[in-house]
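Dear colleague,

As promised, here are the two records you asked about, laid out in our usual form so they can be pasted straight into your sheet.

NAME FIELD: protein one
SEQUENCE, THEN STRUCTURE:
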Amino acid sequence: EGIKNRRKDLLRGVETRIQEIRRMIFREVARMAYDTENSVADKIEELPYEIIPGEVGNFRNDVFLERAIVGERLRLAMGLPCRSAAEHAPLSDNIALADQAETYYTPPLINIIKFACNACAEKRVYVTEGCQGCLAHPCVEVCPKKAVTLDRTNGRSVIDTEKCIKCGKCAEVCSYNAIIVQERPCAKACGMDAIGSDENGKAEIDSEKCVSCGQCLVNCPFGAISDKSQIFQVIRAMQSGERVYAALAPAFVGQFGAKVTPGKLRSAMKLLGFADIFEVAIGADLCATQEAEDFVQEVPNKLPFMATSCCPAWSSMAKKLYPEYRECISMALTPMTLTARLIKEQHKNAKVVFIGPCAAKKLEAMRKSVRSEVDFVLTFEEMMGIFEAKDIDVASLTEEVEGINDASEDGRNFAVSGGVAQSVVNVILERYPEREIKIANAEGLRDCRKLLMMAKAGKYNGYLLEGMGCPGGCIAGAGTMQSIKKSQNAVKKYAAQANHKNSNETEYVKELNKL
């Protein structure tokens, strides 16, 4: 279990060259938005040379390729389409689209910059120099296809790639770990098996399968995968005089630095011009309360089981792969949507930007039923780019504690795997103490698929199922910046400071019927 946790936490909180460039891109897009005196079209043409200066590439040893990749990243960060290497239009092509404050994310959200892709092998098994040519040669004995033989000249194992079925049994039994199974990182991270190869061996996303969880994005070691952003549009909306309200997802704790308290974050957001800041944990409380009532009323009388709705990657996956059970996915509105409705109920003509860990929330906001509620979606990483663009050191600000929302401990724990189901259970136990409730949960889309497969087979009749598209829960979303373990501890510590334990105890629950 410890090894598994380290594996899923591998690239979080590690400042690699890829993270450095991503942050730089977000910062520069924000600066372009704030600069109303100079031409955006001119600036975007100059930026690749400023971000990748000099005559020698920093990483790929091809300065022109690096600048081309940066150029496409800039376009995506402005919400513009990704282009192929065959297109010769300037970076500023269709730049006017970015200046439309109401521009929604247009599919595809997750994009592969083909000329940045390394064309990694999809999967291969091979013998390294670590092979000792041992006498036991268990690799030969366990191969079901007799694809492993010994090279009599040096005693080392040799794998016939024509016969090999890539089962990995030889790697499992090697005492020296001299045989490795190597998989394309983005495809391995994809729980939907949505990533294949094009005719040139470059990675390709099947949009019919993809649920935009973003795990491929954070696991590509070449930085070839990127999603679109609304940084530019959010800033321009505030500049135009719109009253823009921030809705902060429960996973925000610790994302902007260990010394950044919720109060300091509120101060920083106000400094940027946000009208006010709301914790989405208040929407999580409403969601848990609604799902608790739905579960009691519908399971098992109307539905064999009920699955939580808050993770868009999980719910999209379930509906794509198991359409016959789509009614078993809770009809409760997600915390993001409920919070946005609450804000707009209290503040007429408000614009709402959801700030969270999740790439899939960007697609959720595009749904026709959600568009009128959530106007923009940014990740924590994109939000940090805005702070850096304005040179705001969040940790050094004075705390603003007035206005911090009265969310419950359970609502704030929605960010951690298992937290959603536990919140629902706690509401049921308080309202219907005689009701027995069983839960099962999974994290990561591959395990979520197994969970639903077992539910389909009748193994979870009468259960409440919680699925989280990202391993670890929302704290491991594609837009997070710190390690999963640190996030887990930070969220739980902050949640414990809440004035209420259960979701149905907060002042906002009485608003549920109005939404």
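NAME FIELD: protein two
SEQUENCE, THEN STRUCTURE:
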Amino acid sequence: MRVWELKMVSAVEIGDNNTDSEVDEVIKNCLVPKAPQSFFLYAGAGSGKTYSLVKALEGFNFSYGERQRRLGKNVAVITYTNAACDEIIERVKGDSLFHISTIHSFCWRQIKSFNDDIRKWVQAELPSEIELLEIQEAKGRAGTKASITRQRSIANKRERLDWLSCRREFTYSPNGDNIGKASLSHAEVLQICSYFLLKKPSFGQMVVSKYPFLLIDESQDTNKQLVEAFFELEKKHQGRFGLGLIGDMMQRIYGDGKSDLGKDLPDHWCTPVKKLNRRSPSRIIALANDIRSETDEQKQCVLQDKQDKGEGFVRLYIASTNLENKPAFESEIREEMAVHTGDELWRDQKEVKHLMLEHMMAASRMGFPEMYSTLRSSKRLTTGLNSGDLPAVRLFSEYVLPLYHLEKAGKKHGVMNHLRRSKSPLLHPDFLKTPSLVDAPLLPLKEAITSLVALIDEKPDVSFQEVLLCVSASNLFSLPQSLFPFAENIEAIDEADETDETDETDEKVSSLDAIRNFLQTPYNQIESYRDYVAGEGAFDTHQGVKGREFKRVLVVMDDEEAGGFLFSYEKLFEVKSPTKNDIDKLAKGEETGVDRTRRLFYVTCTRAEDSLALVAYSNNPELLKQNVINKGWFNEGEIVVR
């Protein structure tokens, strides 16, 4: 029999606007050109880290800006999203002293003039990619669609390798699609920059000379390989270069971040801590503090002005995982929250941010489950899929879909602008000068648009593959490299085994097979997917709301519907016992699914500005209730079991 030590919900200290003033002073003292000092700033949920960052930049500008401009030096600030970049740029009034960008933009800016070195790096990488495909092909069944796809991919990579035998200039767009042999992928840009920082001393010297300070926001989710390269740069140039990392390891949500960031920092680093949460009321902060108490000892306090408006609302609703109509149950919860909080906007689904455990849950509720499930089966594709940046999908979401809507709306001017921005090959000057098109240079373009729209209109269940073949046949848009192997019909000799085993770590299927399976799903799911990744729907996940806040938050926790293996609320709430693999990882000090789920729970709960409702679907609702009470996360009166 298990004996519990009953814990009480924690109390929260109260702070004021000056609570973290000493932290701002510490950062100010680090940003001194004659004696740069590196720092790791812990900035928890709602702590106003952007305020502190901007205040530090303004102070630096006042004290050292004029001299730094004369020397041609800048402070580099790396943020996670374009929206965050725009916010900081606006707050510093666009001052050119500060180079503010996303990580991909920053890396490309540093490497883009080193074309010959980039060429050598790509030449060295491609053979290993070809070798992996050849190994998979040797193990697979000949004559299947999977085999033919691999062979085409191998041929494309060999063609690019031959193309690299001569000197070339490379291209890259941080915010767009990178198509063609000269284009670098997002992953390649980060890898190349990391490699140059570690292996080319002159490159590191160039970066340090240009940027005596490099500040990285959301550092817990910045690419591990790149962060480690920056650490080496700081070590080699200590006293001349300052590295500032801003973040919170409890809010790490992406797998490619450095999991031990902040541990075993060099002795000369400063480690200031922001304690004040300016976003949430005390009850939500207390819950957040209790959740993370199983990970570390960081505790936040509430802003006095926020506390004066009330302690906020938290409710946990628990139901059986076998409940038939879960969306209806969640609608009932919104009704109850409207009554409980006195906030009528809880009744309006659009005014409540619904946060899902996994993207698959949102995909099912918003209507794009098939296309999402096929692509997420490849670990290599998930980051781009979840962010909306996967080139194989963007062809349909950012090129085909907008064109279709503009054409159907009769916006001819908008159609032409879209095609120009998309650099349609049918508008390329060389194509328009074709002798046979002298009398009607735009005829192929009109025919291509007409055939595409007719295909989508006349066949409601048209697949992505059919749309791709239509686009490819007319050359309406340039295709990303990942779709080249599928741009022609594949006549398989043997259909008995369409998916082969692979050696890709943690892959259910290879990325090529995943894309091939995706292309067989209904094209009509693309619009819901696009709305989702654009954040225009009521449903979202912890990744999609990174750094954001909402008045009303409804968190939905359902392990079975999520269908994933990276997270488990049933284990976090101790309804399910840990597996042998969990126990082994825990013994080795490695991250477990419970660790990831706890961080997810923390991130979702701390998005709420006023009120928070949580719904947990469980195989044992009563046990879950008792466990969270025993943990001290909720009072009994805050829990409703249905």
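A couple of things worth noting about protein two: The CA atoms of residues 140 and 500 lie 5 Å apart. The chain is about 50% helix and 10% strand.

Best,
R.
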